[in-house]
Amino acid sequence: MRKAVWLxxxxxLIINGLFIVWDYFTSPICLNTTxxxxxxxxxxxxxxxxxKRGVIKHPLLIFLWAKIKGRNRTLxxxxxxxxPNLTPAKLLDYLFTGTGLVRYKVTxxxxxxxxxxxxxLAKKRLVNERRFCQLAFNPAFASRLGINASSLEGYLFxxxxxxxxxxxxxxxxxxxxxxxxxxxxxKYAPKxxxxxxxxxxxxxxxxxxxxxxxxxxxRPIIASVYLNRLRRHMPLQADPTIIYVLPNFKGKLTHKDxxxxxxxxxxxxxxxxPTPICNPGEDSLKAVVEAPETPYLYFxxxxxxxxxxxxxxxxxxxxxxxxxKRHGHLSN
Length: 332
Description:
Oligomer: single chain
């Protein structure tokens, strides 16, 4: 009789213990925070860190549960969102599958330079600004990504991304942005070949067009002006190429600026600048490969966001007299 009582008591303890364990694993953590799992962490290391943060109360149970389920592989690194309804069992699943990783939305405006992109990403704490620039301006790294240029200026596609916050992920983010560029550019590659333009030429011209106007309608016409100048071996005389190398541009080019001895000075040097001057958006890429045949060789800002286009120097000078005296900008 005594043996039967002890046996019943023993089974009661087991059932009660299992119920307690089950209740623990399926009850909400009731926290609203984030935790960071470093690359290479084992479940043991992660459980210790989570316990120290107060996210889990019984680290040994979590560790044993992972062992029982045969989960001994490395966890998915990154920042995880701990929400009030999350249970320890679900948290464990998250750590091995990567579900629940926090992804940060970041929008890269069209026409941003590498340095501007690095600053935007650094403000979101997604990259180290210096390391990002070092990689993006590394010709060997550009070559490994299939870009035949001295830097990746022009090839970091401007759009909205969702990135996880991980240490030393500058390389990954750059690769994603270049892949996005390639995905978009392949739509225009056949038309570029028909025009006899290389990818590098298309992107460089597109970067200048991007900086010249925000008008989607005018971009193809401006692209046609630069293509006409290139065909006639005329200097591009593009203000944005000079602005690109000015460290403290004040919003207005001076005649002294036009004498800067830089390969980006398209007033002094014929042909395209050595690299793109920004990272153009799809509309500017499209504008170059779909530029219409026009007789225009010059254009001048009318001060209202639009431009007046001329076919000869005499007409252009009249347009300068008409428009530039109003707002004091240089013309092309």
